[in-house]
């Protein structure tokens, strides 16, 4: 391949190659039609510098579009083994792709869990509010329901017996001598019934105690 020693000619070839690479063969044909017979553009039609011109065009095309993909076969021999660098890069790309998939899955799971989390938080807030309210009521009347609470805990823990129910009812009758205390204990019993930790048998027994107590009130 001959490279022009004349700077003006070399610059003209390289500038035209840039335009041809950007605008395509139609631009080259238009230039050839326009410059036909012009010795400065003789490289377009052949001659010693045509190969250098074609080289410049191909170089500019690769700058714009990237190098052409490698061709395996057609007399080019078998494909070359993957280099260690490409192997590492492909491995990293696969790891990154998997991380993206995992992140999207985790994000979806988190978004799906938000309603349930909010519901649980609201329920917990309600329980805490009820508990604080009950504690304040008991503190205001200076009334200790710990003995009754211990018996109710046994009822809720599975130790359900007529004697325990009877003992709980008896304690209420003996310690609730005023309307204010009766109202406080009734509120306490209802709060225990509404407790999320209360089982069905416990609720039935407490309601039985309340009904029996109300009947004899």
TrEMBL record:
InterPro entries: CID_dom, ENTH_VHS, Surp, SWAP/Surp_sf. GO terms for biological process: intracellular calcium ion homeostasis; RNA processing. Residues 140-217 form the CID domain. Residues 12-56 form the SURP motif domain. Coiled coil: none annotated. Transmembrane segments: none annotated. Pfam families: CID, Surp. Gene3D superfamilies: 1.25.40.90, Surp module (1.10.10.790). GO terms for cellular component: perinuclear region of cytoplasm. GO terms for molecular function: RNA binding. Residues 64-93 are annotated as: Disordered. This is SURP motif domain-containing protein. It comes from Haemonchus placei (Barber's pole worm).
């Amino acid at each position: 391949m001959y490279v022009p020693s004349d700077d003006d000619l070399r610059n003209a070839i390289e500038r035209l190659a840039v335009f041809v690479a950007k605008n395509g063969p139609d631009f080259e044909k238009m230039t050839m039609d326009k410059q036909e017979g012009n010795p400065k553009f003789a490289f377009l039609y052949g001659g010693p510098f045509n190969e250098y011109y074609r080289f410049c065009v191909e170089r500019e095309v690769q700058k714009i579009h990237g190098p052409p993909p490698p061709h395996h076969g057609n007399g080019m021999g078998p494909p070359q083994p993957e280099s260690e660098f490409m192997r590492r890069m492909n491995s990293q790309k696969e790891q990154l792709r998997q991380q993206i998939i995992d992140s999207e899955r985790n994000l979806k799971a988190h978004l799906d869990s938000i309603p349930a989390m909010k519901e649980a938080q609201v329920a917990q807030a309600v329980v805490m509010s009820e508990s604080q309210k009950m504690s304040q009521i008991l503190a205001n009347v200076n009334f200790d329901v710990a003995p009754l609470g211990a018996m109710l805990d046994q009822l809720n823990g599975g130790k359900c017996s007529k004697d325990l129910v009877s003992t709980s009812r008896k304690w209420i009758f003996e310690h609730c001598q005023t309307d204010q205390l009766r109202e406080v204990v009734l509120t306490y019993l209802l709060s225990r019934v509404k407790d999320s930790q209360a089982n069905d048998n416990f609720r039935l027994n407490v309601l039985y105690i309340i009904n029996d107590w109300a009947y004899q009130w």
